[in-house]
Amino acid sequence: MLNRSNILLAAALVVQIVLLVISVGARTGREERAVRPLLPGLSADDVTELAIVDDLDNSLRIARSDDGWMLPSADDFPVNSDKADELLERVAGLDTSRLVASNPANFPRLEVAEEGFRRKLSIVSGDEASELYLGGSAGADTVYARLASDDQAYLGTGLSAWEASTQVSAWIDASYVRAPQEDVIKIKVSNANGSFEFESDGGSWRYLGLPEGEVFEDTLMPSILRNASSITMVEPLGRVLLDEYGLDEAPVTVEVEYRQIVETEVESAEDDTEGAEGATDDSEDFVSYRTESYTLSFGAKRDDGNIVLKSSTSDYYVTVREYALDAFEDLEQADLVRVAEAEAEDTSAAGG
C-alpha cells in the first residue's frame, strides 16, 4: 500500500504535469495568435511592378519608373501614381489578426481559391515576388485575403477587391479631348459624304455650306459640338501607328478651332518711378485670346466595338466608345438644311 508520503508526491507530480501542459498550450496559442503583416517586409515604395487579374480573366499590369507609375503595354502611358501607391499601402496594411479559414475546402466559398477568386495580385518588390488572392467581404471595407503560398485565409480591413480594378480607365486620366464648348469657334467634319464646316456666330452657329434659299437645320449642332470638344478614352494603345488602326486614310476627321485665354498684366504708366513715395500699383490683368486647333482622326472599329482615335495634340493613339463617332460618321447635307419657309409657301401656293 502507498503511504501518505508517496500519495502526496504523486499528487504533486500530477499538478506539475498539468501546469506544464497549460503553460505549453498557452505559449503555443500566443504564438499562433501573434499578429504579423500578411506580406511581411512589403513596402509600397519598394514595389516596382503590380499585375492584377480578375474573375473574368481580365488583366492589368503597371510598372514604376523614374517618373511614376506607367502602363508598359501602352508605351508607358502615365498612370495615376497616387492611386497605385494607395492600393499598395492598403495591401501592405493587411495582417493576420483575423484568421477565418485554414482548410482549403473553404477557399472557394471565400473566393480566395486558386481556381476561384475575385482578384489575384502579383506584386514584385526588388527580387521578391508575391501572389495574393482577394475575395469576398464580410462587410464594408473588408476583404478575405490569402497568400498563394499559404493555406490560411484572413479577413483584412481597409480594402475591398473592387479597388484592384483591371479596367485601364480606372487608373489613368481618361480625358482625351477637352475644350470648353463656349470657346469653340469652328468645326469641320469630313466623312464619306463630304465636308461640313460650322462657325460660331455670337452664341449661335452658322453652316458655311448652306445653299442659297435654304435654312440651316441646327438640331444636330449640340451633339456635334459636344463630341468635338470632349471625348473620354477607353484605353491608350501606344505611340506607334499600326496598320490595324485604319488611320492611313482616316474615314472620319474633325477639325476644331477654339479660343485659348491668355492673361497678361499691364502696368499703369503712372508707376514708372519704382519705389517712389506714395506710388500705387495700378496694374491690371487683361484677358486676351489666341486661336488653337486640333484634328481628330477616327479609325477602325476593334473587336471589342471601340473605335481607334488619334488627336493631333496627343502622342498617343487611343480607343473610344463608338458613340463618340456617331455625330460625325453619317452626317450628310440633308441633315443640315431645309427649304426656307417663304419659298415653301410659294411652292405650295403654286401647286394649289
Describe the fold and architecture:
Helix content is 21%, strand content 38%. The chain is of the alpha+beta class and 352 residues long. The strands form 4 sheets. It has a 9-stranded antiparallel beta sheet, with helices on one face. The protein has a 9-stranded antiparallel beta sheet with strand order 12-17-21-20-19-18-13-14-15. Strands 6-7 form a two-stranded antiparallel sheet.
Helix share bin:
10-25%
Name the beta content range: 35-45%
The computed structural class is alpha+beta
Oligomer: single chain
Main sheet properties: 9 strands, antiparallel
Task: Tell me how many strands there are.
Answer: 22
Extract low-pLDDT stretches.
17-31
The radius of gyration computed from the alpha-carbon positions, rounded to a whole number of angstroms, is 34 Å
Overall, the morphology is: elongated
Straight-line N-to-C gap? 140 Å
Q: What is the element string, with H for helices and E for strands?
A: HEEEEHEHEEEEEEEEEEEHEEEEEHEH
So how many helices? 6
